[in-house]
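Could someone model coenzyme A with this protein?
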Amino acid sequence: MNKTIAIYPGTFDPITIGHLDIIERASSIYEKVYVTVGINPNKSTFFSVEDRLDFILKSVAHLDNVFVEYNDGLIIEFAKRKNAKIMIRGLRAVTDFEYELQIASANMYLDRNIETIFMMTRSEYSFISSSNVKEMAFAGADISGLVPFSVNEYFKVHKRR
Ligand code: COA
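Reply:
Sure, complex below.
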């Protein structure tokens, strides 16, 4: 396992500036970061996998050690295929902790050699979620301060009337 390869998995429906901040910080620490669009069977998504990948690709174009891929199986298997030792997850508030502990523990059961590393979300981004940016955008609010350019452009073009 290469200690300097990390993966950052999520549903990213869509990517927000909170996610982007984690990606930028991870890219300054690790040699390679794979942002992985995964499937959470408990969520139905608004955006297609292609759209989610496209938004992320456009948002990370300035980071040459960041790669974006889709994975439809267990995230731990993806990590192994990429020879990654580290799985990054963002923590916003104490309410995220229980859910994240469950995922990290399940992943540790599946492969104890892959470590989950938590990065604290910047406090100014701690209220942001993919769900609440969609809710605000669908209601016509300006979300330009909450999402990368590519996502904001989508909502500008597809404004609900
Ligand atoms: N900035 C903004 N939002 C953040 C954030 C940050 N820094 N950190 C977390 N979030 C939000 C996300 O926006 C998302 O919000 P939403 O619920 O409104 O959509 C929420 O926190 C958590 O979603 P996300 O980080 O995308 O993870 P997830 O739980 O939806 O999915 C997978 C994670 C896809 C990686 C996971 O389900 C998976 O790996 N699935 C494959 C099966 C597997 O291997 N499971 C693990 C063993 S059980």
